[in-house]
Amino acid sequence: MSFHPKTISIIPIIGIPEIKPGDDLVRLVTEAAFKQDISITNGDLVVFAQKIISKAEGRVVKLSDVSPSPFAVQIASELNKDPQFVEVILGETKRIVKMDRKLDRGMLIVESKQGIICANAGIDASNVSGGEMVTLLPIDPDESAKKLAEGFKEKLGVEVLVIITDTVGRPWREGLTEIAIGCWGMKPLKDYRGHSDSKGYKLSATLLAVADEIAGAAGLVMGKNDSVPVVIVRGYTYEPGGVGARELIRKPEDDLFR
Length: 258
Prior knowledge:
Elements: E1 9-13, H1 25-35, E2 45-49, H2 50-56, E3 60-62, H3 70-79, H4 83-91, E4 93-102, E5 105-112, E6 117-119, E7 133-135, H5 141-156, E8 161-170, E9 173-184, E10 190-191, E11 207-208, H6 210-222, E12 230-234
Parallel strand pairs: 2-8
Antiparallel strand pairs: 1-12, 2-12, 3-7, 4-5, 5-6, 8-9, 10-11
Helix pairs in contact: 1-5, 3-4
């Protein structure tokens, strides 16, 4: 018997306009997909870049409106960063994990209020009004994903899954990649513990971060300069349920590096 691996399609949705606070993302995505002759169907996984979620939810700050605290000014001086930018970072931070100045590049690694450990609390100036404005992470990315899934159900009558991604660096490895910061409709982890592999070996530690893998795959067609903030992933066999991407955040008591 021959084995035919399942095919997964990654479909970029193009033509989505610049997003403004209050915009209906479900409507805009549906209209853009229609223009491409793409139907959004049951079981599709709709992947959103964090940036457009934040813009639609009004999570945008004008740096010139920010008054930096003395602490922000001190850190900015040490790290060669803009004090107003640092003040915004501190406002979105639970704790500072690491500060360091490498060459001319100040590094500020924090745990964001969402529990995500990343550079600059996920605050980003790219593709936002030439750097005068910055976007903050959604207040609750899992809730944002849930509302989008409910929106597609209401508008199109289809059950879709939603993942919200962000671009992060990783310890010990060069380069940036996409991860899932919000998820709804599927378990973000696939647990193989207790199962046996093809050779009969019993697996004891295999827990795959499938939502992150999907985010990374979607990032291949999103690009940084391609203006593709939404992707449909079709054909992936998922496990329904879960409580969101928060499951991907390791508990402090299990984290060897805290």
